[in-house]
Write a structure and sequence with these properties.
Layout lengths: L2 E18 L4 E14 L4 E7 L9 H12 L11 H7 L5 H19 L3 H4 L6 E3 L2 E3 L4 H13 L4 E5 L4 H15 L4 E5 L6 H13 L6 E3 L7 H10 L4 E3 L6 H10 L4 E4 L1 H4 L2 H14 L2 E5 L5 H13 L4 E5 L2 H4 L5 E3 L2 E3 L2 E3 L8 E4 L3 E2 L1
Parallel strand pairs: 5-6, 6-7, 7-8, 8-9, 9-10, 10-11, 11-12
Antiparallel strand pairs: 1-2, 1-17, 2-3, 4-15, 13-16, 14-15
Helix pairs in contact: 1-3, 5-6, 6-7, 9-11
Pfam family, one: MR_MLE_C
GO molecular function: metal ion binding; racemase and epimerase activity, acting on amino acids and derivatives
Family: Belongs to the mandelate racemase/muconate lactonizing enzyme family.
Length: 360
């Protein structure tokens, strides 16, 4: 199977409610979609959101990287020797690379007649995701948590705002609302310093409020601070913005800066980088979470297949972005139903069509 051409399109899906973190506010999913065409009529799909606040890339830079750097050597190439093809591609824009890798792995799995996870060494099944509760007033977050319970979620990730006293109130309200019916993750998105993170966890522990992990409490580059935090608290610390690629993962592991690594395809530059990070974590005795950006079901489905390929080390799944949207325009493939993610057993990502594509 050879790639004969490509098309680019925008995909926009409104959110159920405004998504707010310590870094940004967003009201819709807005993905660039890459459609790879082949000589046998099969189609490979990949996608990438703009994540300027995180990776520094917007849609214009993603399109430029694809059209000028990444796609020219791919058009005309076969997918039967994918590792060699990927090794020949330039680095740089991780969003663009992720979109391309997902589409290429989709085609490679179709070529073998296998679901993507099986091509990667796993097996299709059902995963269960946490649901993110956007940072808001304490009462509003509690209401969102109750609504999540009614939808069947048993694990919630609470976004923090970086004001320790207010964050304590947020967690208190949610803990009362869920009354032990859901486990809690906390995600600070780099908004704390060492003393603030220690204070917050100490207050929660003193009140008997259990949290399973604290995600990226300190700035991404403060690995020494993250390591000192781990020494002072019992709650597992997870690195997110500190880990983009395998080189970052090696630095975090060497510094003792995390108990858990959060892998996202857009950060790692796609499937190959994500698998490499998972394998590094396994070798170091760490576990991983498979996460996602605020993006469509295309990239999130690919992330779910990666998680299913490394279940021993990727023990937590936070792939809720399609569930934050008002609908899913992707027909066929992986299905997202409340907390359950049912991986397709059809070849590749199993995508039959995508509604609402606005071709460029």
């Amino acid at each position: 199977m050879r790639v004969t051409g490509y098309r680019l399109a925008m995909l926009r899906v409104p959110l159920r409610e405004v998504f707010t973190t310590a870094l940004r506010r967003v009201d819709q999913v807005e993905d660039l979609v890459l459609v790879l065409e082949t000589d046998c009529g099969r189609t490979g799909y990949g996608s990438a959101p703009a994540t300027r606040a995180i990776t520094g890339e917007d849609h214009a830079s993603i399109i430029a990287a694809l059209e000028h750097d990444l796609l020219p050597p791919v058009v005309g190439a076969g997918v039967d020797a994918l590792p060699a093809l990927l090794a020949s591609l330039p680095g740089g824009n991780s969003n663009a690379r992720a979109a391309l890798e997902v589409a290429l792995f989709d085609l490679a799995a179709q070529d073998r007649g296998l679901p993507l996870c099986q091509l990667l060494g796993g097996a299709p099944g059902t995963l269960h995701t946490s649901l993110t509760i956007s940072v808001n007033a304490p009462a509003a977050m509690a209401a969102s948590a109750r609504a999540a319970l009614e939808r069947g979620f048993t694990c919630l990730k609470l976004k923090l705002g970086g004001e320790p006293a207010e964050d304590l109130q947020r967690v208190r309200h949610v803990a009362v609302a869920v009354a032990g019916a859901a486990s809690l993750y906390l995600d600070a998105n780099q908004a704390c310093n060492l003393e603030q993170a220690c204070w917050l966890l100490a207050q929660l522990a003193g009140e008997g409020i259990a949290v399973e992990l604290l995600e990226q409490p300190l700035p991404a580059g403060d690995l020494d601070g993250m390591a000192r935090l781990r020494q002072r608290v019992k709650t597992p610390v997870m690195a997110d913005e500190s880990v983009f690629d395998p080189e970052d993962a090696a630095r975090v592991i060497a510094a003792g800066a995390a108990d858990i690594l959060n892998i996202k395809l857009v950060k790692s530059g796609g499937v190959s980088g994500a698998l490499a990070i998972a394998d590094q974590a396994a070798a170091a005795g760490l576990s991983c979470m498979m996460g996602c950006m605020l993006e469509s079901a295309i990239g999130v489905a690919a992330a779910a297949h990666v998680a299913a390929a490394r279940p021993e080390v990727i023990t937590r799944v936070d792939l809720d972005a399609p569930l934050l949207a008002r609908g899913d325009p992707v027909r066929g493939g992986t299905r997202f139903s409340a907390a359950a993610i049912s991986l397709n057993r059809t070849p590749g990502l199993g995508i039959a069509a995508i509604d609402g594509l606005d071709y460029l």
